[in-house]
Write a structure and sequence with these properties.
Strand order of the largest sheet: 1-8-7-6-5-2
Number of strands: 8
Radius of gyration: 24 Å
Order of helices and strands: EHHHHHHHEEEEEHEEHHHHHHH
Number of helices: 15
Distance between the termini: 66 Å
Bound molecules: iron/sulfur cluster
């Protein structure tokens, strides 16, 4: 097991074991044709649907209360283009340099038939006897189209599990049913161990220094890996009884310290798995969010900025500064949140501490003693702070 345990969850870890059928995640409710038609109308007749990927699904899990994102992602609206049409283009995305560096590191980790990656997997999560370099299987997963690749992946996982040998699936393709539409997901790798367990591998180019890495980056990687694990669990449930076990610790592989050498640590993703599961079931309720929209609402990116602004503002959002790193609409939503004086624009923790006081004006009125329930601890604390400030200013030399 790991010399460098990293936890992206505070949930204690139970002993691993095969999952019973009743414990398996429910497949999200399949949306009907009427919903798909309605979502296509919202997207616009000539706008191709933006496919959902693991990053989008992970971002949904990071902001589970945002109806705006849930609806736009559910309808396949291209959010980067929408942000552009709204006049608030996103600066969201990975630089070309970071992309190339990540690509080179991943190639190094998987070199020589994945010998080093399998050694790290065995060392950190176990799974059977030590892999012998050159003897592991690396099946060819190439096929036409995402459906074809997903089919090849399913076959390779079935054969590898039956073979009981170390197998590396390099960029497999997984399908996950999301609101009645398959989302195709491509993890960096999945390792099948001789004991039949499946482990998701995430390869990142941020460093792991003295066994620990940036907590925010580990959290983002864990949310993304949870989406892959969810898709694998659906696939495992289809493969038979007992279903192969998908490990709830993913293997995070990063450069060691300041070198280019790979190191790895298991990351507990159970909390992210349950949040993602819940989010996907809520995503199936985009029908309810869409039904509450005024007639004629459209997110067609070819429409005018004024029309799109009205449409986007008709869907409730829960902006937080974290959106800046996760959602293409962040600049638009931040501007609206600031214009409304919403305290969430200042951070989720402050929003939590202020309780029922949702705007900056309400908080200032409470601090001045002009509004708010004095029995509310947040109001009482603001009044005390306001009185102390007034006292300090009164005693200031003029
Ligand atoms: S940027 Fe806006 S739409 Fe995106 S998650 Fe945040 S609040 Fe929701």
């Amino acid at each position: 097991m790991s010399e460098f345990p990293i936890s992206a969850s505070s949930v204690p870890s139970p002993a691993p074991g095969p999952r019973a059928a009743h414990e398996r995640p429910a497949t999200p409710r399949t949306a009907g044709t009427a919903l798909r038609r309605r979502l296509a109308e919202l997207r616009g007749p000539d706008v191709p649907a933006q496919p959902l990927d693991a990053r989008a699904l992970a971002a949904l899990a990071a902001n589970p209360g945002c109806h705006r994102r849930a609806l736009l992602d559910g309808a396949g609206v291209p959010k980067a283009e929408l942000a552009h049409s709204l006049g608030a283009p996103s600066a969201f995305g990975q630089s070309q340099f970071a992309f190339m560096r990540g690509h080179a590191f991943e190639a190094r980790v998987k070199a020589d038939g994945g010998a080093e990656l399998l050694r790290l997997t065995h060392a950190r999560v176990g799974g059977g006897p030590e892999p012998v370099p050159g003897e592991a299987s690396v099946p060819d997963l190439t096929a036409a189209g995402p459906q074809g690749r997903a089919g090849r992946t399913e076959l390779a996982l079935r054969e590898a599990t039956a073979a009981g040998a170390w197998t590396l699936l390099d960029h497999p393709m997984l399908a996950l049913d999301v609101a009645g539409t398959p989302a195709f997901l491509e993890p960096d790798a999945v390792v099948v161990a001789p004991d039949g367990t499946w482990t998701v591998v995430e390869i990142k180019s941020f460093p792991m220094i003295d066994g620990s890495a940036d907590a925010a980056k580990v959290g983002a990687a864990a949310r993304q890996a949870a989406v892959y694990a969810l898709a694998l669990e659906d696939l495992a449930a289809r493969l038979g009884d007992p279903a192969p076990r998908v490990r709830h610790h993913v293997l995070l592989v990063c450069p060691k310290d300041f070198s280019n050498l790979p190191t790895a640590s298991p990351v507990d993703i159970r909390k992210q798995l349950s949040v993602t599961r819940r989010q996907l079931s809520r995503l199936a309720r985009v029908e309810d969010i869409a039904a509450a929209l005024p007639p004629g609402t459209t997110f067609d990116v070819t429409r005018s900025a004024a029309e799109l602004t009205a449409a986007v503002d008709a869907v409730p959002a829960t902006y937080a500064p974290e959106c800046l790193a996760a959602c293409e609409l962040a600049f638009h939503c931040r501007a609206r949140a600031r214009a409304e004086g919403e305290v969430t624009a200042l951070g989720r923790s402050l929003r939590g501490e202020l309780g029922a006081l949702a705007t900056v004006d309400q908080a200032l009125a409470a601090a001045r003693g002009e509004a708010g329930d004095p029995d509310d601890p947040a109001v009482a604390a603001l009044r005390r702070a306001g009185a102390l400030r007034a006292e300090a200013l009164a005693g200031r030399p003029g």
